[in-house]
Structure formats: structure tokens, C-alpha cells
Specification:
The complex is a heterodimer of chains A (about 120) and B (about 110).
Chain A: E1 4-7, E2 10-13, E3 19-25, E4 31-38, E5 42-49, E6 56-57, E7 65-67, E8 73-78, E9 87-94, E10 106-107, E11 111-115
Parallel strand pairs in A: 2-11
Antiparallel strand pairs in A: 1-3, 3-8, 4-5, 4-9, 5-6, 7-8, 9-10, 9-11
Chain B: E1 4-7, E2 10-14, E3 19-25, E4 32-38, E5 44-51, E6 56-59, E7 62-67, E8 72-77, E9 86-93, E10 100-102, E11 106-111
The chains are: A mainly beta (about 120), B mainly beta (about 110).
């Protein structure tokens, strides 16, 4: 039972390059989230999805795009990376709110991105 | 907008001490509250989830309580060990699509 898997774990980009972070979950969760974690800023929600084919903006969506073509995968894209996007990115998933025990968030191990 | 505060930001205790970590939230209309542990350079591991209808939840040496009316939760760690050293975060899901607001965490150091 893998839970939530993020790839890659580490990446270094130059300013202006693009890349995609992949999140995969095998728990049949409806909801998936992308957070970034920065020193002194805590965890901030970038984008989230409440089901296959749906996405929505979180607190800090600018400069990122997402897609949820399959229920188990949630992709985070950076079209033109900037140094301000240097961060640790976490993916999380949960069942939909309203189900008993819902919204138990399960996190991936994180992806550390450095933009030079 | 939900705001979550954790005090203290850092705590250092000798091994064997019992300790309490605090989490406060501004909007009491919550489904549940979740406590996480994060080791340096790692992801978040769920420790305990308290449903809004519950007052407390226990797992081993950990006990979490919830008082919705006062907007507070506490995480009690009994007989602390050096292996408990980590950052502890609380998270409250918002009513809209289950998005969670996180506190900034309490960094715990347990000295041998």
C-alpha cells in the first residue's frame, strides 16, 4: 500500500524552465491537494481537486497549473519557473468531506524544488 | 477566514517529561481537527484525528482533546522520548471542499 507518491523528489531548474510534479494515490480518494511549505510561511494551498476532471485555486495559485485527468493522479505544472517558486511541495489526498472519518489527510514525502 | 495558531513555536524538554502542545482556531464550525508530525526534511505523518463530535482521541502516549466552543485543541505527550523530537502541526478542514488550514507548528526537542 503505497499511499501518496510524489515524483521527482528533488529538482533543480533554471529561471524560465518548465516542469511537472506528479502525485499519485492508490487509496481511491476523491480530493487531492498541492501545498507548498516555506520557512516562516507554513503550509499554503496552491490548487486542489474534488474529483476527476475538476480543479480549483487555493491560496497561492499564481504561476502554477494543475490537471486531474485520472482520479489517482494530480499534476502540478510550472510553466516558467521563478526563484520565488523555490520550495518544498507536498501533495495530499483525502476522501470527500461528509463521509465518517473523512478528510483524514494523507501526505506524500515531498518534492524539493530549487529555481536558480 | 479560518486562522490556526500554535503556541509555543518551539519547546525543549528533558526526556521523561509530560508536555502539552496547543492549537487555537478562530472558526468553530469545523468537521474535525487533525494533528500531524513532521520530521526534518520529511513529509507529514498523521497522528490523530478528532471528529467535531468527539472530545478526545488517544493513540499510545498521545492524547488529543478538542473544545470547539473555545476554539482550542491540545496534544498531550506522556513520558516524552528523544524520538518524539519533531515539528507538530494541527490542521482544520474548512467547510468548503475540505480544504485545510494549518498552524505553523511547534518544534519539539526532547533532550536525553
Amino acid at each position: 500500500n503505497a499511499g501518496v507518491t510524489q515524483t521527482p523528489k528533488f529538482r533543480v531548474l533554471k529561471t524560465g524552465q518548465s516542469m511537472t510534479l506528479l502525485c499519485a494515490q492508490d487509496m481511491n480518494h476523491e480530493y487531492m491537494y498541492w501545498y507548498r511549505q516555506d520557512p516562516g510561511m507554513g503550509l499554503r494551498l496552491i490548487h486542489y481537486s474534488v474529483g476527476e476532471g475538476t480543479t480549483a485555486k487555493g491560496e497561492v495559485p499564481d504561476g502554477y497549473n494543475v490537471s486531474r485527468l485520472k482520479k489517482q493522479n494530480f499534476l502540478l505544472g510550472l510553466e516558467s519557473a521563478a526563484p520565488s517558486q523555490t520550495s518544498v511541495y507536498f501533495c495530499a489526498s483525502s476522501f470527500r468531506t461528509g463521509i465518517s472519518g473523512a478528510n483524514v489527510l494523507t501526505f506524500g514525502a515531498g518534492s524539493r524544488l530549487t529555481v536558480l | 477566514k479560518q486562522e490556526v495558531t500554535q503556541i509555543p513555536a518551539a519547546l525543549s524538554v528533558p526526556e521523561g517529561e509530560n508536555l502539552v502542545l496547543n492549537c487555537s482556531f478562530t472558526d468553530s464550525a469545523i468537521y474535525n481537527l487533525q494533528w500531524f508530525r513532521q520530521d526534518p526534511g520529511k513529509g507529514l505523518t498523521s497522528l490523530l484525528l478528532i471528529q467535531s463530535s468527539q472530545r478526545e482521541q488517544t493513540s499510545g502516549r498521545l492524547n488529543a482533546s478538542l473544545d470547539k466552543s473555545s476554539g482550542r485543541s491540545t496534544l498531550y505527550i506522556a513520558a516524552s522520548q528523544p524520538g518524539d523530537s519533531a515539528t507538530y502541526l494541527c490542521a482544520v478542514p474548512n467547510t468548503n471542499a475540505g480544504k485545510s488550514t494549518f498552524g505553523d507548528g511547534t518544534t519539539l526537542t526532547v533532550k536525553p
